[in-house]
Task: structure prediction
Amino acid sequence: MTDRNAAPLLSVRNLTVNFGGPDIVDDLSFDIGQGEIVALVGESGSGKSVGSLAIMGLLENATIQGSASLSGGASSGGQEAPTELVGLPARRLRALRGRRISMIFQDPLSSLDPLQTIGGQIREVLKAHTRLTGAALHSRAIALLEQVGIVDPEGCLALLPQRLSGGMRQRVMIALAIAAEPDLLFADEPTTALDVTVQAQVLRLLKGLRDQTGMAMVFITHNLAVASAIADRVIVLYAGQVVEDAPADVFFRRPAMPYSRALLSAAPRLEAVLAGYGHLEAPRGQVPSPGQRGTACRFAARCDDVRETPCLASMPSLVSIAANGEAHHTVRCARWEELAP
Amino acid sequence: MGNGNLLYVLRLGGVKILLLLLVSITGFTLLHLAPGDPLSQFTLAPGMTAERLAQIAHGMGLDQPLWRQYLHWLHGIMTGDWGRSFRDQSPVLGIIVSHLTATIELGLAALGISFSLGLGMGLMGALRAGRTVDDVTSVISIILFSLPTFWLGLVFIYIFSVRLQWFPTGNFSSPGDRSIVGYLRHLALPALTLGLVSVPVWSRYMRTFAGEILKQDQIRTARALGLSSGRIIVHRLLRGALLPMIPVAGIYLPTLLSGALVTETVFSWPGIGRLFLDSLQYRDYPVVMGVLMFSAILVLVSSTLAELLHHVADPRLRA
Ligand SMILES: Nc1ncnc2c1ncn2[C@@H]1O[C@H](COP(=O)(O)OP(=O)(O)OP(=O)(O)O)[C@@H](O)[C@H]1O
Ligand code: SF4
Ligand SMILES: [Mg+2]
Result:
């Protein structure tokens, strides 16, 4: 799926977000390739949601710096000039949302309009982004529901969200998000609120949609087992920074950052997750809060491999550790070379 | 409408009729226990004798025991005969109807003012939560809430009628002036008074309901899907916040009546509020009871209509 030679779909550089206080997201840089599924993992408060919402232009009262550049999507064959999302006027951002980048959230019930039928909500989104009317609008709505695996799409159109099960609601939510065929979907813990069997179904659905449509996806999760089930690449966020960014197979075999290792050794295997245990078990200690991140390695207080120098001397920078010919792999650890197995 | 719905309506109706009976009994009893006597207006008439007075009392049914008077009155009410005024013998229902137009006009004008201001203020406060607009609208609401209606009316009269002489001090119209503009000038101050004092109810509820919806994920999701802010404000926010306003309106609309009582008195507005106070002063029991029952019915009808409307308007209740 991933073609590293092509220009990335989304290129985030030095993205920094604050709400008037300390920076919540700090110097975030990563790329999302066309059609790539990237798992964004990290403990609660690491800035996964804030970072994604900032890129989507959905944060209010936030100061956003840096760059998030969205290239021409699959639809335009990458011919369109890239669009800088940070600082884009609200109206132009709105026009991109839904059509180029879309987002789904954890709780599908509260995400849907409780007063409008599923059909009404799908038509609402289609009307916002397409010129479809009448029968064409209707059949597109049906096709979308079929695409997300709803068995009786005609009947579903007439229902209110409250009449659907949790899994069905999330499927409807996904249908809404892909209605205008976006190139990139942010999925913020889309399966966390679902029970385990449904969780697996929704994961399969999302992966299948990517295979079908070539839509890229940023999959936000606490759960490394879920990440391993869906991701092409894993980005680990710690205290507002990227600390490791690696292809999934490399990441799960040979994580380079001590924090990633701690997470992986604490994480249950996929079977355990699907049986109902599976939240990311944090290593001992606590994430420093945004105001107390200091100038040393932010993981130092919890790291088993910490040394006065170089760890506390300065903030390690994100460096590429990919050998020649290997896929993109970066890590933020001053001792990665010594610690490499 | 299914069977369940019919049953629901019947039960609702039954409870309300019981309530009406209770109101009428309480009103009737209190009125007759209160000091004062409807006959006092006749005692000072020249050439009045005790015999003649007793005759009048008999004619008015006042010599009967209270419970008999009540049953007689109740029977009349149910058969459409609301009795006759002690003052001029004209039928009570006719008197009420003739005073109703003035109250309805005042009420509608006041409602227009309070609804648009109140809903607008609440919505603005919610959309700008925690900012200056929110604080300002809250403070205005609190001030308006704590102002006594009669005081506000008197202040308006003092400022706009006495000092600035922009508006007349009261009454329905000036003698000889039948123009629309003249009428509106008379309506302005009472409508503004009654309207302003009921702004806080709508603005506080609207602020709460709209604030709750804005906190919901559905707003963020709608934005994530690329819906326009106009669409989101009208279709999600307004629709969602106005729905729970329906039962609130059903409860608070009738309180306009008590506001009208004061407003109509301050501005000598010839509506049923003033009719009620005048009749009370003259111990004109049939009219007082008539207005009381009329208001009680209005209260019940209004809240019932609101409940039914809410039932129809909320798709979740229909499903
Ligand atoms: N609107 C806001 N104003 C101020 N601070 C905020 C706001 N939203 C989030 N934060 C703070 O930003 C930090 C990162 O939050 P974020 O929601 O991005 O974390 P997360 O990684 O998504 O965590 P979780 O896994 O719990 O969802 C938290 O400390 C949070 O308190
Ligand atoms: S820089 Fe030092 S403290 Fe930080 S993760 Fe690497 S080894 Fe641990
Ligand atoms: Mg989050």
Notes: The pocket of iron/sulfur cluster (ligand 2) is lined by residues A 258, 297, 299-300, 303, 305-306, 311, 316, 333-335 (CB under 6 Å). Residues 97-280 of chain B form a domain with the MetI-like fold fold (CATH 1.10.3720.10). The mean pLDDT of chain B is 85. The interface with chain A takes residues 216-218, 220-229, 231, 235-236, 239-240, 243, 314-316, 319 of chain B (CB under 8 Å).
